[in-house]
Amino acid sequence: MNKLLLHVEGLVFFIVSTYVYFYLGFSGLLFAILLLAPDISAIGYVWNNNIGAILYNLFHTYTTPIVLLLVGYFLHYQIFTMVSLIWIAHIGMDRTVGYGLKYMTNFKDNHLNRV
Fold first, then answer.
1. Around Cβ 99, how many Cβ atoms within 10 Å?
2. Which pairs with CB-CB distance under 8 Å and at least 24 residues apart come from 33-36?
3. Distance between CA atoms of 95 and 49, rounded to whole angstroms?
4. Is the dihedral of CA 52, 54, 55, 61 positive or negative?
5. Cα R_g (the chain), whole angstroms
6. pLDDT tens, 14-38?
7. What's the chain look like in SS3?
8. What is the dihedral of CA 40, 91, 80, 58, to 10 degrees?
């Protein structure tokens, strides 16, 4: 049941952030280009599992993009708002299909399941 709730939560984040992004009239091309950008953080696995997991997890937690979204909203920085909504959509998309925060044991081990 907990796993299902996390998948549904990810789907909600994906849908809402995508809706808000396009509702605000932001670029669909930019959305398509940046949607997979947070996965570049997996480059840390080139060095070792610890660095890989730390770097990957820093880019796959909702905390940073939500803070960026708030800064963008309150300071009227559209680029922050756009990037944060895309970033949140990416994390939500990952959670929906079963990709979670990584454990330091192996790239395939995450908090939702073993991929």
1. 19
2. 34/83, 34/86, 34/87, 35/86, 35/89, 35/90, 35/93, 36/90
3. 20
4. positive
5. 14
6. 999 999 999 999 999 999 999 999 9
7. CHHHHHHHHHHHHHHHHHHHHHHCCCCHHHHHHHCCHHHHHHHHHHCCHHHHHHHHHHHCCCHHHHHHHHHHHHHCCHHHHHHHHHHHHHHHHHHHHCCCCECCCCCCEECCCEC
8. -60
Against a cut of 0.70, is the pTM above it? yes
Asked if 17 and 92 count as a contact pair (C-beta separation under 8 A), the reply is: yes
Q: What angle do CA 45, 8, 91 make, to 5 degrees?
A: 30
HSE at residue 54, side-chain half, CA atoms within 13 A, is 6
**Sole residue written with tokens 């909600």:** 12
pLDDT of 62-78, one tens digit each? 999 999 999 999 999 99
